[in-house]
Amino acid sequence: MWQAKDDAIEAQDYARAAELRDEEKATLRRAVSELDEQLARTQFAAAIDAVMKLQAEVGRLGGLLQHWHGADAW
After folding, report:
1. Which residue range(s) make up the domain with 44?
2. Total domain count for the chain?
3. Gene3D superfamilies attached here (predicted)?
4. pLDDT tens string 9-62
5. Which of these, 33, 19, 11, lies nearest to 1 by C-alpha position?
6. Are the CB atoms for 23 and 1 separated by under 8 Å?
7. How far is CA 14 from the centre of its chain?
């Protein structure tokens, strides 16, 4: 795509160069958007994993409280 744009500029076909520039910008915007979505999914999955680990730890600590202080402690 970039070579075609450079060729259009050299040929002084500025309308074609502008079209190619716009296509290039759109392609870059799509790529950034896709990366943002992938990052969001990864962060969401990591957050879910952390919540599950915290829930397990809370359950473990609750069990210890009940063991050491009786059923009323939890």
Report:
1. 2-73
2. 1
3. UVR domain
4. 899 999 999 999 999 999 999 999 999 999 999 999 999 999 999 999 999 999
5. 19
6. yes
7. 37
Altogether, the residues listed in the chain come to a count of 74
Cα–chain center distance at 41: 5
DSSP, collapsed to helix, strand or coil, labels residue 1 as coil
Round to whole Å and give the CA distance between 71 and 74. 6
3-class secondary structure per residue, 11-39: CCCHHHHHHHHHHHHHHHHHHHHHHHHHH
Confidence (pLDDT) at 74: 55
pTM of the full structure:
0.61
Query: How many Cβ atoms sit within 10 Å of the Cβ of residue 11?
Result: 10
Rounded to whole angstroms, the Cα distance separating 56 from 9 reads 62
Q: Is 19 exposed, middle or buried (0-12, 13-18, 19+ CB in 10 A)?
A: middle
